[in-house]
UniProtKB/TrEMBL annotation:
This is Acetyl/propionyl-CoA carboxylase subuit alpha. Residues 107-307 form the ATP-grasp domain. The keyword Nucleotide-binding applies. It holds the Pfam family BT_MCC_alpha. It comes from Virgisporangium ochraceum. The lineage of its organism: Bacteria, Bacillati, Actinomycetota, Actinomycetes, Micromonosporales.
Length: 670
């Protein structure tokens, strides 16, 4: 029996495992880096062990430190979660050699399935169809191909290549990213299937020869080869195809002597032909949708199997309704969706019925690695949380999830929330017409929720009124009416920097505080604070102030009430409404002159470490040439020459830590 379990992971999956362990009476040990010392999972575990350092290679990828932590904390078992060392056979063997229980498949199985090329040969011999694969990139015979990391998953170390001239750079980049994320830079190439669906089957096997499939998951909505929306059952899979997929998954598991929870992934073509991709020998990020529809706790079953128990059923359990999961990432929609860092001032998902674990009735489940006040740093994956909706039908589950995300209050860092909502509400997604190229085929889903001019204008007005109410509350003249004047005067004005540009709000109140006129107009940032024409407030829409406090503004717009919650942190106002959210930064009325950025100046796109520098001062480059790379959040970000010219100054070297906006190099254009 397992008495005390060390969770060899961090963030959301660590919290998820701890919840189940607490429910079944197993004590838990957390491990944490310097950056994770105050993370929620550390406080929720019964014991915690510090791993000195921050980067994954000096902390969570150090198997020797993890085994030592288990010994020091008196743990008798180790659960690897997902990512990091979860699919490292050497780590699994080290755990067993230390006399500990390994909550996962046997090390030899991990090694076999971890080598995706070897795994494909094994399952092909078992009669499961596989795609053409080239272990040596020099042997690639046709395009397009997908360069893939042999170890790990989650979209790391993957590159789509459509032309032979681009293969070498893609392979080199994928190797570096895989080495950073998994400690193994081995990659291979695989034929890329156009308009394919990514469908996987969850299986669980015990040490007594029982292998059970738990249905399929549709994981075709992907960006950068990483899943962002998953669901079960798939809207494409009929009973006949489901039986074939599940049978192939069970055959794969039996062929390798699998024990524990695992996932067999397939690529499915429009004509229902399917091909084996890989087997993930661990718990998947998207496992909650299966838990809700099947009515099980997969972590609990993992513990049961690790203790030598027998599965409680011999065949696939019936499915109950439909579940959809969306992954929330800290990303900047206005800057090429690069990962974002910062402090979460607020993290609230209204309507979430449960955090982690199974649910008895349909509703919303939140699996989060963060809470309000958490700091999102540069060292790890930018995923904040997963929100899962479970309902009797797919349409209900999708609608419920989209509405909950739209009403979420996430302040402090940018996220992909609007993208998720747009996808879930897109007619093609609602109809189940999707594939792995969905986002490329529907670029309209990248528009922000607050894309209409009227919605943004009302948010700006609400932020201005909330700011006025806040200043009035702290003023010694608070007893006077807000709009008190003894003669007509110019309207009040305030300028905000929004994701879509700079906007100036002008409004006028009467002696009772009623709105007598207002307007919001787009301006150039350099014009803020400069003398100009008085804004024309005539012809403004029929808007009345119902109430205005520092935290909430209610407006009546042509007889319809709109409520805006305003959370101000410093100069930033986070405005939330039923339409969505927007971040507005108030600009000073009389801004101080700042240093001008010289033409050709190249700055860091986000905080991170400079992983490569490919140029030297005095070197001539062409537009589009790769100059250097910055690594952050387990991804490699390239900095290319915006134009042809000469590198006249180089401010960094490989290994340097840089902040967002830091000067990297200066390129003098031709």
């Amino acid at each position: 029996m397992i008495r005390r379990l060390l969770v060899a992971n961090r963030g959301e999956i660590a919290r998820r495992i701890i919840v189940t362990c607490r429910a079944v009476g197993v004590e838990t040990v957390a491990v944490h880096s310097d950056a994770d010392a105050d993370a929620p999972y550390v406080a929720e575990a019964d014991y915690a062990v510090h791993l000195p350092g921050n980067s994954p290679t000096e902390t969570y990828l150090r198997g020797d430190l993890l085994v030592d932590a288990a010994r020091r904390a008196g743990a008798d078992a180790v659960h690897p979660g997902y990512g990091f060392l979860s699919e490292n056979g050497g780590f699994a063997q080290a755990v067993l050699d230390a006399g500990l229980v390994w909550v996962g498949p046997p090390p030899k199985v991990i090694d076999v399935m971890g080598s995706k090329v070897e795994a494909k040969q094994l399952v092909a011999d078992a009669g499961v169809p596989t795609l053409p694969t080239w272990n040596d990139p020099l042997d690639v015979e046709s395009y397009p191909v997908l360069v893939k990391a042999s170890a790990g998953g989650g979209g790391r170390g993957m590159r789509l290549v459509r032309d032979a001239s681009l293969l070498a750079d893609a392979v080199a980049s994928a190797r570096r990213e895989a080495e950073s994320a998994f400690g193994d830079g081995t990659v291979f190439c695989e034929r890329y299937v156009e308009r394919a669906r990514h469908i996987e089957v969850q299986i669980i096997a015990d040490s007594h020869g029982n292998v059970v499939s738990l249905g399929e998951r549709e994981c075709s909505i992907q960006r950068r080869h990483q899943k962002i929306i998953e669901e079960t059952p798939s809207p494409f899979v009929d009973p006949a195809l489901r039986e074939k997929l599940c049978s192939a998954a069970v055959t794969t598991a039996r062929a390798v002597g699998y024990i524990g929870a695992g996932t067999v992934e397939f690529v499915v073509e429009p004509d229902s032909r399917f091909w084996f991709l890989e087997m993930n020998t661990r718990l998947q990020v998207e496992h909650p949708v299966t838990e809700l529809v099947v009515g099980i706790d997969l972590v609990r079953l993992q513990l049961l199997v690790a203790e030598g128990g027998t599965l409680p059923y011999a065949g696939p359990p019936p499915l109950r309704g439909h579940a959809v999961e969306a992954r929330l990432y800290a990303e900047d929609p206005t800057c090429a969706w690069l990962p974002r860092t910062g402090t979460l001032h607020r993290f609230d998902i209204p309507g979430a019925d449960k955090e982690f674990g199974p649910m008895l009735t349909p509703g919303l489940r939140l699996d989060s690695g963060v809470v309000a006040g958490s700091v999102v740093g540069v060292h790890y994956d930018p995923m904040l949380a997963k929100l899962i909706s479970w309902a009797p039908t797919r349409y209900e589950a999708t609608r419920q999830l989209a509405t909950a995300l739209a009403r979420a209050r996430i302040h402090g860092v940018g996220t992909n929330r609007d993208l998720l909502v747009r996808v879930l509400r897109h007619p093609s997604f609602v109809a189940g017409d999707l594939d792995t190229g969905f986002l490329d085929g529907h670029p309209e889903v990248f528009a922000p929720l607050l894309s209409s001019v009227d919605c943004l204008r009302l948010c700006c007005l609400a932020a201005a009124l909330a700011g006025s109410a806040s200043r009035r509350e702290s003023s010694p003249l608070a007893a006077l009416p807000a709009g008190w004047r003894n003669m007509p005067s110019a309207p009040r004005t305030v300028a905000f920097e929004a994701p879509s540009g700079t906007f100036e709000v002008a409004y006028r109140l009467d002696r009772t505080g009623a709105l007598t006129g207002w307007t919001v107009r787009a301006v150039e940032r350099d014009d803020v604070g400069l003398p100009g024409d008085t804004p024309d407030l005539d012809g403004a829409p029929d808007v009345a102030i119902v109430s205005a406090t520092p935290s909430r503004v209610v407006l009546d717009v042509a007889g319809v009430r709109y409520t805006f919650d305003v959370d101000r942190v410093g100069d930033v106002s986070y405005v939330d409404s039923a339409e969505g959210s927007v971040e507005l930064t108030e600009l000073p009325r009389f801004p101080l002159p700042g240093a001008e950025t010289a033409e050709g100046t190249l700055t860091a796109p986000l905080p991170g470490a400079v992983s490569r520098v490919l140029v030297v001062p005095g070197q001539r480059v062409a537009a589009g040439d790769l100059l250097l790379t910055v690594e952050a959040m387990k991804l490699e970000h390239a900095v290319h020459a915006p134009t042809s010219g000469v590198v006249t100054d180089l401010k960094v070297e490989a290994g340097a830590q840089v902040e967002a906006g830091a000067l990297l190099a200066v390129l003098t254009p031709d």
